[in-house]
Write the structure tokens for this entry.
Amino acid sequence: MLPHHGSATQRGNMQQQVIIIGGGVVGLTSAWWLAEAGYKVTLLERNEQVAIAASYRNGGQLSYRYVAPLADAGVPFKALQWLLQKDGPLRFRPEADWRQWRWLASFLRNCNSASNARTTAKLLQLGEWSRAGMAHLELTVPPEAYARRDAGKLIVYRSPAIFQRAVARPESEEARIVLSPLEAVQREPALAALQGSLAGGIFTQGEAVADCHAFCLALETRLLQHPNCSLLLKGEARRLVTHKGRITGVDTSLGLLQADHYVLAAGIQSRDLAATAGIYLPLYPLKGYSLTAPIRAQHRAPEISITDFERKVLYARIGGDLRVAAMVDMVGADNSIDWGRIAGLTRLAREAMPHGADYDQATAWAGLRPATPNSAPLVGASKVANLWLNVGHGPLGFTFAAGTARILADLMAGKAPPFALDFLAPQK
């Protein structure tokens, strides 16, 4: 059991203790910034290794300028079309769970241009803050440790109308290059098979690809060397113990753990844990899939990070592999692999990049990405005095982890955030 030191006035200058629940990329980065800020940090992870859930085989893109929220005008109609497509990007299974329907109702309220524009503007600020945070972390975790490359990002469009709307969007105009289909293929020859299907593309410099799992392992090594940090594996948090509006401990498979502050960074598990303290978190697990296929000498894999906008498929060369990631399955907290979905993703990859990698030797993955209805993560204080949140990053956990960890450390130290946290701050 970790000793509990009472109130801040009782402690004086004694070192405050923090328990972070969740050892994925968000929990690990939070642990680093809090340890660096002087807190005594214990990171609790329920699995036998860190980062083997949502952080394991995600898309691998660090897309600081491409932060489009899922909720937007026209998305409900598009969703109906996607549900009818054999290999469409969306699957939906109704649940007898009020949380699914409450999340969907809030998501639909955000499906308008005004909400999308406001959230996008905030996420762009968070993206730049995260980019600076990752640059700072490179002093501790060098890019070669996790196959990081500044590959740039190319979004390709098949519909002329959708492409023109994307070109007309105002954000990040100075950083992007609008390309014709021929120019897109010239910039990235791996797209040759799609040239006749493309309406155009938008290339953005400065975006990166990297291996999120390798990053987490490298950061774990640094944390284990840090005098202010310890790691508890195979320790599952069961509930938060509360008394008079404060958390007094975490009931875990390892026993009762106690500290001064508690941070929820446990992906979709955070939803159930928060509920034990009387807090509703507007999170839903959006299941995504990926393939990791080896690149042989004869293959022509993309050097640039690619997003096929209408198919909602992304391609990233990570080390010697091609990562192909896609799909949103709204099927509850089920992280099992649907092999029909994997077969569909393989078909899409073979169609778009037939010579991209050895798809016959690809390994498959599925993971639950905890998303909020407006795609903005929740970071900051909860309504319980000493419980803090860093949750809801959806498919952009790797992209935003450094930024929200920095913000969390500042807020816990009583510092002002770098920008107004509307759309990011938890509702009290």
